[in-house]
Amino acid sequence: MAARLQGIAALPETEAQCLPGKFYTCPDFYQFEVETFLKKEWHCVGRVDEVASPGDFFTTFLFEEPLLISRGDDGEIRTLSNLCRHRGMLLAEGRGTTRRFVCSYHAWSYARDGRLSNAPRMQDKGVNAENCSLPSFRTELWNGFIYVNLDDNAAPLSSRLHNLEALLGNYDTQQMRIVHTQEEIWNTNWKCLVENFMEAYHLSVVHPGTLHPYTPTGLSRKSMSDDSFTSYCANYPESAETRGTGAPGLSEDERRRSTLFCLFPTQIASQAATLLVSLSIQPLAVDKIMVRWTMSTYSNELTSDELEARLALWNEVNREDREKLERMQRGLSSRHAPSGPLSPADFEGTIWDFYRYLSRSISQLQTL
Fold first, then answer.
1. Phi, psi angles (nearest 5°) of residue 128
2. Which are the contacts of 212, defined by CB distance < 8 A and separation ≥ 6?
3. Strand order of the sheet with strand 276-285?
4. Sign of the torsion angle spanned by Cα atoms 93, 287, 179, 267
5. CATH code where residue 91 lies
6. Is pTM beyond 0.90 here?
């Protein structure tokens, strides 16, 4: 299957075609993806303002690894192992603010930076902060997002972001503040959601009452891409009014479009003048993902009624996409599942970029 993927990715863009169904349904290939490159990549886990103050934390999982994202007393954001060093009990749940993390099993406690604070009745066992503090994972911040990598040897994320920064720089996304967080389980392959979010071909068909009035398929144009990301611009028709002012440095064109991007492999997002919607995909199985999506905006940019309307809109958009993807997933196991042609580059060229990323990731890491 890896050879078939590389063959499809090597086609000229004018001959680009879809991956066969087994790439989305084969458990062995899914596990191959996880071990070959997904565990070695940077993944978005949240926004910086979710841990705005010392003691703020939230928890999540990444490929069955329990993570604890915490801001320490020194102001640094860390990603810690969310397991007590005694017997492996999950240390924290959900999100909140705490002075220290206390294990609910035997009351071992840890400071906000993960250092062991106390291990009751273990004074004679040689237990101390040097040998029993919480392990940490590599963490980087960009544009107000938090990224984690489980691989200690991976290249820095920052070295890959120059072109994406150029595309999004005027939006001043770091100044946006999160207004909504939601987690959902979708019964689909992780690649299906990446491809769906990153193509404009379906917008006017699947979302006639939600997205089509603002971002019809016909006005979409493929935008910048490189080895780390792909993007397209969903341009607004003249009949659609400009929705807010946004950052001072935005051009009129930037105010009149949404820029959708995928930071490979699992972050997909829509950046508009006044609203940022980001979806972090956590693969759970070949046909199951956890989708953690956030909505952010600038302070005082939108009224409470406007925010409520935007939230309702995006909930409906996600519902419409989820219904289609779960329905498609049920059909992809068919021996007749097609490997059809992709539509013109403005509408599905981003999928071809994604295939080439997959091919590079597999071939490069197989040779290490």
1. -155, 180
2. 203, 204
3. 177-186, 288-297, 276-285, 267-271, 257-263, 229-235, 220-225
4. positive
5. 2.102.10.10
6. yes
Residues 289, 169 share a domain? yes
CATH assignment of the domain containing 311: 3.90.380.10
Residue type, 278: S
Are 121 and 265 contained in the same domain? no
What is the residue whose two structure tokens read 């060229």? Answer: 349
Task: Tell me if 156 is assigned to some domain.
Answer: no
**Tens-binned pLDDT, residue by residue, of the chain (368 aa):** 889 999 999 999 899 999 999 999 999 999 999 999 999 999 999 999 999 999 999 999 999 999 999 999 999 999 999 999 999 999 999 999 999 999 999 999 999 999 999 999 998 888 988 899 999 999 999 999 999 999 999 999 999 999 999 999 999 999 999 999 999 999 999 999 999 999 999 999 999 999 999 999 999 999 999 999 999 999 999 998 877 789 999 999 999 999 999 999 999 999 999 999 999 999 999 999 999 999 999 988 888 999 999 999 999 999 999 999 999 999 999 999 989 999 999 999 999 999 999 999 998 755 44
Q: Report residue 222: phi and psi, to 5°.
A: -65, 140
Nearest Cα residue to 113 out of 127, 99, 95, 131: 99
Whether 72 maps to a domain, the answer reads yes
Q: Are residues 218 and 251 in the same domain?
A: yes
Say if residue 135 is in the same domain as residue 83: yes
d(CA 167, CA 179): 24
Pairing mode, strands 56-62 and 65-71:
antiparallel
